[in-house]
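job 3f2a | input accepted
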Amino acid sequence: MRKGNPAVWAFVVTSTAGFMAALDNLVVTTALPSIRAHLGGGISDLEWTVNAYTLTFAVLLMLGAALGDRFGRRRIFTLGLALFTLSSLGAALAPDIGVLIGARAAQGVGAALLTPVSLTLLTNAVPPAKRGAAFGAWGAVNGMAVALGPLIGGTVVEHLSWQWIFALNVPIGLALLPLARLRLSESHGPNGRLDITGTVLASTGLFGIVYALIRGNSDGWTSATVLSGLVAGAALLIAFVIHEMRTDAPLLPMRLFRNRAFAAVNTAALLMSLGMFGSIFLLSQWLQNAQGYSPMEAGVRMLPWTAMPMLVAPIAGLFINRIGGRIIIVTGLVLQAAGLTWFAVLVAAHVATPRSCPV
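job 3f2a | predicted structure (359 res):
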């Protein structure tokens, strides 16, 4: 690696930061029983240790890109990385479940700031002829983080403690901060206006719906808290769509959804994520609490599921030009639905699974 090569440095910095952000989506799943044993809390509290991160990350992702266009992508990347590193330390030192949830939410904010601008920073540093390979490598690194998240989390928890799944981010983040400042070039986008109204509407609307879904079982689906969250959240999201159609600088241009391919791909990605991330949370609890596996053993048994996209995605990419993306997407959704249905039929409190079997 040449010391002065900006493309190499951009890849190293952005992909490493992206790896940490993607890893924290799933690394905590196998640590949840240990966290509960140490900090207490019910199942809804454990859900929030996962959802606090994913919610803030998803809601603020578009805002992170807009802030990068307005204030500078390297600046926002550095800010997001610093926040992610500091909140990781806060999560590692959390004295109770409430502080941990707050730190996880702050981690999600940091990840939402650094992730969208990292790919743009890489684009600006890499020559056009090499961007395809760079994007593929960047995506592979992030995909590896998702695939290995439960296994890494389980291994760290079993051999160290659950605090270390967050503490390990701190030295990496501290090493990346000066590199980001010195090795990344600053850039701005063509549109410097911020859609504050759209951000508030989308954020509060999604929060209301997710909060209601999490509290549904404990409070009752007909309770005032749950119904008000669902109704208010849906109303705010409708207001967000109306606002985005009328504003001159939308956070999410609604015209994009007029493209059937764009709408279909994003809908499929939403459904796939809902099925996968929600089920992995429950699967981790079942493997450890009902089946008695250690955190690392649970991570190993989840690996055939989480690692499969990393193996299949390149093969699917080769077939897209031959048979079309529609067949690939539909096949993936059908297989996901079949797998989840199989889980629903087989999983019970005392299902016998061979100790040597990976599933």
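job 3f2a | The mean pLDDT is 78.
job 3f2a | closed
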